[in-house]
Amino acid sequence: MKVIVTVIEKITSEAHLNIPDGLAQEVIKQQILDLYNSGQMQTDLNIFKVDFESISARIVSEIQQAQ
């Protein structure tokens, strides 16, 4: 018997960034978005928390496996 298990988790990551002082809130938001979208923030992101959301299982019959 084959069973497909799906686990859904919500992962919260945290990064500590150095942003210059004196910037407007919109400029800070844009800098953070630019760092994230460019992939530069990925190395700084650390998993902070993982929340379990759900788990489900589906039994795959022998007939479905042969197709």
Structure, described:
With 67 residues, the chain is an alpha+beta fold. Helix content is 28%, strand content 42%. The protein is built from 2 helices and 2 strands. Strands 1-2 form a two-stranded antiparallel sheet. The two termini are 15 Å apart.
Concise synopsis of the structure shown:
The chain has 67 residues and is of the alpha+beta class.
Write the layout of secondary structure elements.
Elements: E1 2-14, H1 25-38, E2 46-60, H2 62-66
Antiparallel strand pairs: 1-2
| Straight-line N-to-C gap | 15 Å
Helix content: 25-40%
Q: What is the residue-averaged pLDDT?
A: 88
Give, in spatial order, the strands making up the sheet with the most strands: 1-2
State the order of secondary-structure elements, H for helix, E for strand.
Answer: EHEH
The assigned structural class equals: alpha+beta
The gyration radius over C-alpha positions equals: 21 Å
The multimeric state of the shown protein is: single chain
**Number of H/I helices:** 2
Compute the number of strand runs.
Answer: 2
